[in-house]
Structures are given as structure tokens and as C-alpha cells.
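Here is one chain, start to finish.
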Amino acid sequence: MENQAAARTALFIAILAGFLTPFDLSGVNIALPRIGAEFAMDAVALSWVPTAYLLASAIFLVPFGRIADIYGRKKVFVSGLSIFTFSSLLMVFSISPLMIILLRIVQGMGSALIFGTAVAILTSSTPPQRRGRALGIYTASVYLGLTLGPFLGGFMTQHLGWRSIFLINVPLGIFTVVLILWKLKGEWADAKGEGFDYIGTLLYAVTLVAFVYGLSELPTVSGGSLILASFVILGMFLWWESGRKCPLIDLQLFRENRVFALSNLAALINYGATFSVTFFLSLYLQYIRGFTPEQAGLILVIQPLIMAVLSSPAGRLSDRVDPGRVASVGMALNAVGLFFLIFLDAATPLPFLLVALVILGFGFALFASPNTNAIMGSVTPKCYGVASGTMGTMRLVGQMLSMGIAIMIFALVIGRVEITPMYYQAFLTSMKFGFLLFTIICFLGIYPSLARGKVTRT
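Its structure:
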């Protein structure tokens, strides 16, 4: 009974934490046109508001997942929630684009500490035979945050101003921290006493920063040079990691565990192909179609709402049916939904867009929790923190690459100008090209998802 109570407590706290950061991220996407108008931000600078958050999250997720395994997952979890909550409060007082982007970096770091440990704590506290159900409920909470983000974010932006989106994080964050300290007993540090890879962490961070910033600087020579340098540093990182006793990323897991490797690759591809959908559509609905933030939020709520409703049943399905096959069906549906979006223009009937969002929501629900179940079920308990951090990194790096592609397209097609009616046609061209590219990427991702083979749970 005590173990069941601990599992229920861990699940409830994971639900709260899983809701918090997606709510912030999706709500901010709706508010981007208002933020851009207040500070006269150009298209590329505006893209950095979500990208800075994702980049910081991707940089810190694996290192802090490793630190959590060594020093304790609960300590890192509480620290992340505290950082995220405090930076959200400071965002309310932003006075410049630079301050917004810098605070988004701090928020992203806090988010990394949360996501680097939430799934690991939940997996450690839940029996294997109930893990898919618990992960499905957790995933549903993430999508509930994504669902309410556009809806409440649009409402608050229109009636209370965009700063209110960050203010609402504060009481929820404080409540969750208090609940953890009060109710979540014990600590998890399955790699206690092992070393930490500082050089690998530095090489990893520099690789991501150079690549994403290089995309934003295209088509200049410096942008191309930074992208080239990122690949060189990536090679150095892989070489360094292969010789470490306690690496930042256990490459042996990728070499020797086919399910783990291909499931993470599938996650990278899926998130890379789908994350920018909300970003593009938020701008499309408000700039091109003239909807208010509240109306745009109500339209965009369709996709994450379906994700939230179906994620838990999809998780339970993956306890009975091979999760790799379920996730592959989801990937295929996402490719179909993205293909529909290629045909959006200024006169597209709204039902056409809603159908595309329904397909994407259904596809993502079938992909996310079964793929998570496949990853966490393919490793031993000692590797839960690393697996959780790696899985989260694939998600964040995929989302970051998705936004990086959006930034690159804006830089090449629109340039560093504010999106005004003069540039609406250029924006539509950018969006269509983005959805075409994402459709191709998602379609190609079906192969590694199917090729992972049958999942054998540990």
C-alpha cells in the first residue's frame, strides 16, 4: 500500500509539472504577434522568443538528467520548478526584446531540470506492468497544458495582456514545489558516486548554439560557417563521449540497444517535423486571416485537445500491443496532417484546417506515449534518468530544429523585417515551404519507427 501511495503521489506531481511548461510554451506562441507589435520585433527576432527557450532546454536537459542520477532526482526537480517559477515572475516586468529572450533562456533551463527528472521519478515509482498507463496519464497532462495554452493564452492575451501568461505560472509553480517538499518522500540517485562529464557538456552546448544561431544568420557567410563548425564540434563530442567511463550521453545504449536508438531517432524526427505547426498557424490565423488571439487560440486548441483525450488510451494500448507499431501509425498520420497544411492560403475554408489539426492530434497521441513506453521499457532502472533525459533531449532538439528551420526560412524568404501587410505573401510562401519540408521529414521518419523491432520490456 505504501508503494502504491508513493506511486500515486509521484504521478500527481508529475502531472502538475507536466502541465506547467507546455502551457507556458503553447500560450506564448499565441501571444507572439502582440509581443512583436509591442517591441517592433522583426520576423527572425520574434522566432527567437520560443527558440531561446527550446535551445536552453535542449542544452541543459541531458546534463541535469545525469546530475539527477548522481545527486538525486528530487533535488534537481525542485530546483527546476523554482527557477522556472521565478523567471516567469520576472518575465512580467520585461522591458525589451533582449530581456525577453534572456529570461526565456532561464525559463528553458528550469524546464530542462523539470523534464530531465519527471519521467525518471515516475518510472522509478511505478511497477512495470502499470508503467504504460502512468506514462499515458502523464503525457495527457502535457497535452492538457498544450490544450489550455492556446485557449487561455489567447483569452489572457486579448483581455489581460501577454504578460499574464507568465504570471499564472507563479502560483501553480509555488504550489507544486510545496507539494513535492511535503508529500514526495525519499530520493532517487541510482548512479550515486559516478563522475560528471564537464568537457562533453561544453562540446554539446556549443554544438547546439552554433547550429541554431547559424541557421538564423543565413544566407550570410558567418551563418554557413557556424553551421559547418557545429558539425565539426559534434564530431569532437562523439569522439570524446566514446572514450569516457562516465559519459554525458551513453553512446553504448545507442550502439547496443536497437529499440532505444531508433525510438529516440523517431522522436527526434517526429518533433522536428511537427513542432513549428503551432508557431506558423498562430501567425497565419492572426496576420493572414485577421483572427483575434482568443479566436486563434480556440482554433488551435483542437490538435492538443485530441492529444490529451487519446494519450492515456494510447498508453494503455501500448501495454498490450507492441508500442513501436502503435507509434509508427501515429507518425504516418502526422505526415498526412502536415501534407494537408501545405495547401493553406488566405482563402482556405476553416473546416479544411480543422480536419488537418484533427489528423495531427490523433497521430501525435498514437505516437507520443507509446514511443515513451518503448524507450523507458528498453533500459534497466539504473539508466532511467539517462533514458528520460535522452528522450526529453530528442523531443527538445527536434522542437529546436523545427524552430531553427522556421527561422532559416524566414531569414531566406522574408528577411529581418517586421511582418506587416507588405510581407504577408512572403510569409505565406515561407509557411507553405515549411510544411512541405516537414511533410517530407515526417514521411521519412516512418522507416526508423518501424525498423526498431519488437520492444522487450525490462
